[in-house]
Design brief:
The chain has 117 residues and is mostly beta strands. The protein has no helices and 11 strands. It has strands spanning 3-7, 10-12, 18-25, 33-39, 46-51, 59-60, 68-73, 78-83, 92-99, 106-107, 111-115. The strands form 2 sheets. Strands 2, 4, 5, 6, 9, 10 and 11 form a 7-stranded mixed β-sheet that branches. A 4-stranded antiparallel β-sheet has the order 1-3-8-7, with no helix packed on it. The radius of gyration is 14 Å and the shape is globular. The model has no long low-confidence stretch (mean pLDDT 97).
């Protein structure tokens, strides 16, 4: 059974930082392209950052480039998203996704990030 479990969300002030984690089980983690998506209320879910295990440069959406860093630990089957200089527009539910080739992706349940004073 595949499980992706996100953690690390919460309430943070503008300019603050958070690190999200995603613990994977039930998959051969190193074979999967891992991504973070986010979805704000009333908006569509979209790709924030993605990373492979083969050394290619990570992908970042323009809205987070230079502020967010995605990383992975293939031994411990963990995915991370370091988020710095957060602003209210970063408020959303953040989801971890695992995808292998053309197979349907696996999703986590999401973790809420709220940036507010």
């Amino acid at each position: 059974q595949v499980q992706l479990v996100e953690s690390g969300g919460g309430l943070v002030q503008p300019g603050g930082s958070l690190t999200l984690s995603c613990a994977a089980s039930g998959i051969t983690f190193g074979q999967y392209y891992m991504s973070w998506y986010r979805q704000a209320p009333g908006e569509e879910r979209y790709l924030v950052a993605g990373i492979s295990s083969v050394g290619a440069p990570p992908f970042y959406d323009h809205s987070v480039k230079g502020r967010f860093t995605i990383s992975r630990d293939d031994v411990d089957k963990m995915l991370y998203l370091q988020m710095n200089n957060l602003n209210p527009s970063d408020t959303a539910v953040y989801y971890c996704q695992a995808k292998f080739g053309l197979d349907s992706p696996y999703w986590g349940q999401g973790t809420q990030v709220t940036v507010s004073t």
